[in-house]
Amino acid sequence: MISARLDRLPPTRSIWNLVILLSLGFFFELYDLLYTGYIAPGIVKSGLLTSTTSGLFGTTGIASFIAALFAGLFIGTMACGFLADRFGRRTVFTWSLLWYVAANVVMAFQHTANGLNFWRFIAGIGIGVELVTIGTYISELVPRQIRGRAFACEQAVGFMAVPVVAFLSYLLVPRTLLGLDGWRWVVLLGAHGALFVWWIRRALPESPRWLAQQGRLAEAEHVMSQLEAKVSREYKRQCGRELPPPAPPTPVAPRGSFRDMWVPPYRGRTVMMTIFNIFQTVGFYGFANWVPTLLVKQGITITTSLMYSSVIALAAPLGPILGLFIGDRFERKTLIVMMAAVNIVCGLWFSQVASAVMLVSLGVCLTLASNIMSYSFHAYQAELFPTRIRARAVGFVYSWSRFSAIFTAFLIASVLKHFGTSGVFVFIAGAMVIVMLAIGLMGPRTKGLELEKISP
Asked: Which of 14, 158, 285, 286 has its CA 20 to 30 A from that of 40?
């Protein structure tokens, strides 16, 4: 009954306020996740790390810094994804944020490669838990008719972090302020901003779907009644009508377990999303984490590289902003396949040009394609599994993108060293072909369907 009551709610201001609050948290998660590429030239300049490594898995290069983050993300998503199913979306959402804020503050004052990598790993665990929880949280709080737009809004607000961190890096990374290298200030600014979000997120309710699934029906009813009262008042002011009646109730399933991911129809979805996540991260982070370094390798100075990267980063929120208009008009799987194809074409072209206009233009296209694909697949994978195992299943399949990124960082460093920028984008193109095949051939349709119909 809770699910039916949620899905009949019109998208009034109160519903969108919840999405915005969650999106503000996502802003600082992406700030933390994506500052790697922008501070990398500064870390290299300070002598802590090198741009490439003498061996494939060397621990003194930028690749090891990237790998440490994704090793933490892998543990956070794979081993800890069940926490949100066990303890609740809101609780885990809050404490994982505090975890990675504390780790980042400690990391900003490290003076050895090992110390830097260790605390980046610790921060990654908290970010991994947070990334799993936020997608689960949004999919369960919003009515079905705006699920695509809600994820687009979350990603639009979140990806505002990319131009912010790029611009801050452009201003700070080449400089030293109060005895601290500029890259350390970039890290500290993000950590302190996230504490503000932790404070405002106290206004978020627990997921009533999760509460009902746990048998905490009185709490679910309380949360649902408060939300309905707010939405009803707003809807009456806007349209002069009462809320529409809910659809017939769907029985509440018992608590789930890991084995539930391996029975039909979820087994095929688990395999599909695992394959997808292993290879999508090659394209997304292969560009996002390496673009300043790739530009430097093409003969551009650190300062100019960061300036170009800042301009390219302005496009980051535009993809999800487009999603606010198209997010619920097209099938998620169709958008994912199309954007992977654009990634292939623009990436290979990027590797063959030298002019500033073309580098920036193609960088913008790559960023748009990657971020449209990002909001689409985050919504998609949260829709494919039932409430009882949603966080656990999303954590499992998403963890493989983190695992893949550990080795992708080293592989890209090696390919860049031996084959240059062209080799990097051929490597990325191959991964995107596999993404297209996995989703195009195996993915079910989800547009406009209730979560309980997608995942019976």
From this structure: 158
